[in-house]
Amino acid sequence: MQEYASDIVSAIHTACKDEGFKHPNIVTECGRALVAHHSVLVFDVLGSSGFGNMDFKIKTGPKTSEALKELMEINENITRKNFQEAFHDAIQCKDEGLSLFNLGYLPLTERAWIEDLFWNICKKIAKIVESLDYVPDELEGLEPFLADVYYGNFSIFQSIPDHWAIKQLFPILPIQRLHQKPKKKVTFADITCDSDGKFDQFIDLRDVKETLEVHELKPNQPYYMGVFLLGAYQESLGDLHNLFGDPNAVHISMGKDGEYEVEQVIHGNSVKDVIGYVEYNRDDLYDKLRKVVKEAVKKKLVTSKESAQLLKIYDQRLQGYTYLENA
Question: Each residue of 135-158: pLDDT tens digit?
């Protein structure tokens, strides 16, 4: 901070001295520097997807294609000596398999096996490439391309719009399992339907990296991430893209003894709040559904008990959070 202030003072001092102006009093409001630590976004990871996560057994038979057989052999025999040759052969086998499928000579199941085997081979090659001093040009972008996607329960456009709009980078890291070394490299996507709702650039020590090291997800165990240095502006800049409202907010103060105190909990927008912003009325929607359900009961498509449950669930969802909640 002192170096930053000194640079500003020095530049203005030099300019004034050169032009013969009296040195001014400098009043400035350096937004990010002052308020960056004001807020943190915490979100849970809902799930993941990726290439080559093989959790099945391939069954071969007399009609199994040569492309699949060759890919199985390549997958079993990749080494540091032959990984480039294996990569070229794998591409050729994959293309051959897709051509056979397009011509009607390959069943859908076998096409799926070929594609998953190909990506599994690429993952093995990417691990070899990590340890090399020189990476062949054709394999430079392999690691980020193969990274799994972790789906976060948040909206980039509502909570972190500067990342999308001006490519501002914010520190992102897990806030649990910190005693374990994260080994999985991933990118993040939010729960909007927009392909721009993602994190695929991250702060590195000297540059920008395309993946972030995190932990493996464990079944039925929550996994939380924190996005830091958001300041005071992201929330005011955010919009209702895909009708995701403000997230829940917790105001925390720190005492002189270093202990924290939760001063206030502010609940985020409900579905009813958000649809109201776009000129839909909760009572009108509920009444329309009630009439449809009533007609369905008359036609004996649902029972009276089922209709009551449906209306209750609908009303609960209208009153509920716009983000996904645990049942």
Answer: 777 787 777 788 889 999 999 999
- CATH for the 66-144 domain, from 1.20.1250.20, 1.10.260.40, 1.10.287.110, 1.20.58.930: 1.20.58.930
Pairing label, strands 41-49, 172-174 = unpaired
Q: What is the pLDDT of residues 272-309, one digit of tens each?
A: 999 999 899 999 999 999 999 999 999 999 999 999 99
Return the pLDDT at 54. Answer: 58
The pLDDT tens digits of the residues spanning 41-75 come to: 999 999 998 876 656 677 778 888 899 999 999 98
Query: CA 126 to CA 179: how far, in whole Å?
Result: 26
Q: List alpha helices for the chain, DSSP H.
A: 2-19, 31-35, 66-76, 83-102, 108-130, 142-146, 156-159, 161-165, 234-237, 271-277, 282-298, 304-319
Phi-psi region of 7 (alpha: psi -120 to 50; beta: other; left: phi over 0): alpha
Question: Is 45 in a helix, a strand, or coil?
Answer: strand
* pTM, 2 dp: 0.78
Give the span between the Cα atoms of 210 and 204, in whole angstroms.
9
Secondary structure class of 137 (helix, strand, coil): helix
pLDDT for position 41: 95
**What one-character DSSP code corresponds to residue 38?**
G
What tokens were used for 61?
A: 């038979």
CATH pick for 39-50+147-266 out of 3.40.50.300, 3.10.450.50, 2.40.37.10, 2.40.240.10: 2.40.37.10
Burial (CB < 10 A; 0-12, 13-18, 19+), residue 65, is: buried
At 53 the pLDDT is 62
